[in-house]
Each structure stands twice: as C-alpha cells, then as structure tokens.
Specification:
Helix content: 40-55%
Structural class: alpha/beta
Number of strands: 7
Radius of gyration: 21 Å
Largest sheet: 7 strands, mixed
Order of helices and strands: HHHHHEEEEEEEHHHHH
Oligomer: single chain
Number of helices: 10
Bound molecules: flavin-adenine dinucleotide
Distance between the termini: 42 Å
C-alpha cells in the first residue's frame, strides 16, 4: 500500500471493499442497464456508517474527514460499484451544511444525510452559463419572509433519487437590489419545480436532469447559512466534489487494471500468457503508476482540506481531479485493449465503464477549466477569458 494512511483508514477501506464486493459489477451494471437504482447498497453503506463517515458525530456522522469519504467512494468503485451520488449528496451537501448550515439546518438535514436515508442532488450548472459560473442567473428574491426561486439548471445528477436539491444561485437583496451568491435547499416535491430526464450514454444507475424553478416558494431557512456568507459555502462544497470525483475515477481505474492483469496472466494465444508481451505489460504498468500518482495527490488534497487549508486544498483538489481523470481514462482504455474483443462483451463488465471514467474529464469541472485555474493561480499566467 503506497498511500501514507492510518491503520484506521486502511481498515475502513478493507471493510468498504468487502461491502462493494458483496454487490459487485453484476449488481451495479444490472441496475444501470435495467433502469434500476443501487438503493440496497446505498442503504447498507448508510447503515454501516460509510455514507456519513466524514460528518460530525453529534449529527449522526462518523467524525472523520473528506479523505475517509473519498476512501469509501474509491473502494466501492474498485469493487465495480462507482456511486455517483456519493460525490454530491454526502460530500457536497453534507459538507456544506455541516460547515455553513445554521444550528437548526444541521439538526434537520445532517442525520438523514449521514445515514443515507436522505439524499441531496447538487445543482450548479446552467444551460447558458456553462463553465462560466459568473453568469448564473438562477435567482431567489425575498418575499414576506420566504424566498421565490426562478431559473434553470442542467445535467443535474440523481434528482429522481433525491429528497432535495442544493441549488447554487443568487439572492437579491431587497434593499439594494444587489445579487449575492447563495445556496438554497429546494425539496424535489416543491410546487413549481420540474425535472426533465436528459438521456445520456453513461451506463450508470444515476440519471441526469434539466431543472426548472418556476417561482418556487421556499421558507426563509432554505438559504444555507448566513445571507452574508458569500462564496464560502460554495467553495466548501467544490473542493470535496473534486476530491470525490478523483476518488471515483481512480476507483474505476483500479477495478479495470485488476481485471486486465487477471486476464493478461491467463489468456494465452501464443506460447506465453499475453501479459508476458511487453506491449501488454508496459502500458498496464504505466497506467498503474499514473493512477497511484493521482491517488497520492487526491490523498494530499483531502488531507489539506481536512486541516482547513482551503486555498492550498483548492490547488491540490484541481490537480488531483485532472490527474485522476487522465490516468483513469487511459487505464480503462488499456484494460479494454488487454481484453481484445472480450473487452467489449457485456459479460466482462469493462467497456460499460469507459463513459463513466471519460465523464471525469468533463465533470464536475472540465479539464480545460482546471488547466485555466492552474495556469492562472499556480503559475501566475494571465487570465485568458
Ligand atoms: C453525466 C453528467 C453529470 C453531471 N452532473 C452534474 C451535477 O450533478 N451538478 C451540476 O451542477 N453539474 C453537473 N454536470 C455538468 C458538468 O459539471 C458540466 O457539463 C461541465 O462543468 C462543463 O460545463 P458545460 O457542459 O456547460 O460546458 P461548456 O462550459 O459549454 O464548455 C464546453 C467546452 O468548452 C471548454 N471551455 C469553456 N470555457 C473555456 C475557457 N474559458 N477556456 C478553455 N476552454 C473552455 C470546456 O472545457 C468544454 O470542453 C454533469 C455533467 C454530466 C455530463
């Protein structure tokens, strides 16, 4: 084990891995292909304390850090069960509410988020704004102690499984008329809220939706934390999202590499197993190295985040997401190549993960936007847009 992890973290990984293997890719892909949900796995993970492992113990959590939740997400993916909702519900919504929610909001939402009985989606992306979050137009206006929310979101994962959506928008100050960034909890059964399925070629139980908020009325306490909190709550969620996206990708990569190695050891079409050919062995070794490097950066990003160093964690989380995406795409592609024609057979449970892992180059933040961030903030180059 290369990662410098505690005994406790290793034990957590081993236990989660065991749970993931109990379900495995047959279960996961079976649900994905039949339009089912991985509810049993989610609920069992919740009961065992894995979904809320990073949340405060006084609200039903395990008292660990985002590194622990990333380990949970990674080990489930390594067992062939990559749960996209881990990235949004406990990691973003749970973390934001734990760090910035008011006392009553923490009491109301955290126990359910920790046990997995409550699920949140997370809605940042808008059809017109895209990667340019400065152009968000979803707006909540104050009206007699309530909020009235109007706007649209797109590609929002898991809304059909969610009790509520944590929506990134702006609130209009009634006095000055100024708009301030804000996060609001919107129940999925709120009048005026509609979700339309977007068909994608992602083979996963989690589906994507386009959302419309047509004057959705929300109580005053739907706004997470203080109205003056600014961008703090959003950034509190985005770094965990990147760390989790990295863990999600490296978990799938480890799953694919393990399958490829297994296959390369036994498949023989000349006098030796195909794994003896360096054209098969070397790319697998190289992808393994790159995945381990990405895991190290993910570990470091989580460590920085858990110690409260948000700025440095931001750099590391972006780099980890980038490195994990690139390494994992190459790893799954090489695993498919190692399997020859069998790489495409549904029974081998491999090609179905190509799109899942490819997603990590685009979401939750695209490769190009990470490179923009690193060029500007880490290298001091001029902003290009
Ligand atoms: C399966 C799936 C699940 C998703 N789940 C969620 C979710 O749960 N919640 C959520 O909020 N969002 C979600 N998203 C949205 C995702 O985060 C966005 O698709 C992603 O951030 C890219 O934004 P965009 O699609 O608007 O692309 P655009 O912003 O239109 O960008 C298109 C291309 O141009 C590039 N580009 C844009 N601006 C620049 C620039 N300044 N410099 C260089 N290149 C640039 C981008 O990198 C990209 O390659 C999901 C997307 C998918 C596909």
């Amino acid at each position: 084990m290369i990662l410098p992890e505690t005994e406790e973290r290793r034990a957590l990984r081993a236990a989660v891995r065991k749970l993931g293997e109990k379900y495995g890719p047959d279960y996961y892909l079976g649900k994905a292909r039949s339009g089912g949900k991985t509810t049993e796995l989610w609920q069992e993970a919740g009961r065992l304390g894995y979904v809320g492992v990073h949340l405060p113990p006084e609200h039903g959590g395990g008292g660990g850090g985002i590194g622990d939740l990333a380990a949970v997400c990674e080990e489930l993916a390594t067992a062939g069960c990559p749960l996209l909702l881990m990235v949004v519900s406990p990691a973003i919504a749970g973390t934001v509410i734990a760090r910035f929610g008011t006392g009553p909001q923490r009491v109301r939402w955290l126990p359910g988020l920790a046990s997995g009985e409550l699920t949140f989606a997370f809605a940042l992306t808008e059809p017109e704004a895209g990667s340019n979050t400065h152009r968000l137009t979803t707006t909540a206006t104050s009206d007699r102690g309530q909020w009235v929310l109007t706007g649209q979101k797109t590609y929002i994962s898991g809304v059909d499984e969610a009790d509520a959506v944590l929506v990134v928008g702006r609130v209009r100050d009634t006095g000055s008329g100024r708009l301030r960034p804000a996060l609001l909890v919107v129940p999925t059964d709120a009048p005026g809220f509609t979700a339309r399925l977007i068909e994608t070629d992602l083979v996963a139980p989690a589906k994507q939706f386009a959302l419309t908020f047509d004057e959705v009325r929300l109580p005053g306490d739907a706004l997470v934390g203080s109205p003056d909190a600014g961008l703090g709550p959003l950034f509190a969620g985005l770094n965990p999202e990147r760390i989790m996206a990295a863990a999600f990708a490296t978990g799938i990569a480890r799953y694919a590499i393990a399958k490829a190695v297994d296959y390369a050891r036994t498949r023989q079409v000349w006098d030796v197993p195909i794994g003896a050919h360096q054209a098969i062995a070397h790319p697998l070794a190289a992808t393994h190295i790159n995945v381990e490097l990405a895991r190290l950066m993910t570990h470091r990003a989580a460590e920085l985040y858990d110690t409260g160093d948000d700025a440095t964690a931001g750099e590391a989380a972006n780099m980890a997401k980038y490195a994990a995406a690139e390494a994992s795409i190459a790893a799954v592609d090489q695993a498919v190549q190692t399997h020859g024609g069998n790489g495409f057979a549904s029974a081998y449970h491999l090609a179905a993960f190509l799109v899942s892992v490819r997603l990590s180059r685009t979401a939750p933040v695209s490769r190009e936007m990470v490179l923009n961030f690193v060029a500007q903030h880490c290298l001091g180059l001029p902003r290009s847009y």
